[in-house]
Amino acid sequence: MTKSKLNKRYGKKIAFIIKVIVMVFFIMLFIRLFIFSTYSIHTESMYPTLIDGDQLLVNKFIHGPRFLFGTGDKKDAKRIRGIGSIKRNDIIVFNFPFRKGNARIDIDYNNFYVKRCIGLPGDTVCIDNSFYKINGTSTIYGNYFNQYLLSTISRKDLLNFCRDIETFPYDSFSCDWSIYNLGPLYVPKKECTIKLDHKNIEFYKSIINYETGRYITLKGNKVYLDSSEIGSYCFRHDYYFVGGDNVFNSYDSRYWGLLPEKAIVGVATHILRSTDPITNKYREERFLKALE
């Protein structure tokens, strides 16, 4: 075989290999953008369900993949409809909804959290003696054992190891909520209208500021959106109430409020792999463990 024929054959092989590499790259990119991604656990906020060193498989196809566009303060997201929807007790990965304080939702698309979905759009959430209650039912949501432990500990003893006892909206005039007792809190659903007053506006002002690009103020017992008095509001988006299984040490909706649908990345369905961060030992028993 002549040298020119050998070069031609090698050239075809190299071209084929390059095509395969490019094809694999785009397939992997497609999967990561539209179907699955991964998320690593570095905190104890979802203990005992998730532990430091777990790597989660996040399904984007259930709720629908998002596209991010824009830069800096102008960054936004659009979602393609998925094959299902978020359910109560699903473990979800999302972007933290408050980038610059709690006065207005401003999604931080570079900051990722993982929590359990407790309340869906349209639900009414309560914490009754440390236990989550949805729409007045007795169904268990979140980690029952940790909620039970919380119910047995006094406020005085809890201060020794709990993140904080007082909760959203941190306004004793409107309510006196804590991780022991919270609510009832209505979780906004798209196109649902509620009446506003000087008490419940504290629950929703960050949402209204976010949706309208304007600011809520309270003058006496009257609610104003910029200079216009309003007595009701129709929500433009869906929201969720999320909580960590470790009710003693989880920064979640109890502390910062409601999660906008646009912030959700996907549903964590399995532990892909897990490594002990101290010993670097592989945890075989957690490989591909389904999450409940």
Report on the architecture of this protein:
InterPro entries: LexA/Signal_pep-like_sf, Pept_S26A_signal_pept_1, Pept_S26A_signal_pept_1_CS, Peptidase_S26. It is an enzyme of class 3 (hydrolase). It catalyses: Cleavage of hydrophobic, N-terminal signal or leader sequences from secreted and periplasmic proteins. Residues 17-270 form the Peptidase S26 domain. This protein has 292 residues and is an alpha+beta fold. The protein has a domain at 191-236. It has helices at residues 3-34, 144-151, 155-158, 201-212, 253-256, and strands at residues 36-40, 54-59, 66-69, 76-79, 91-96, 108-119, 124-128, 131-134, 182-186, 193-195, 216-219, 222-225, 228-229, 232-234, 239-243, 259-260, 264-274, 289-290. Strands 1, 2, 5, 6, 15, 16, 17 and 18 form an eight-stranded antiparallel sheet that branches. Strand 7 (124-128) and strand 8 form a beta hairpin.
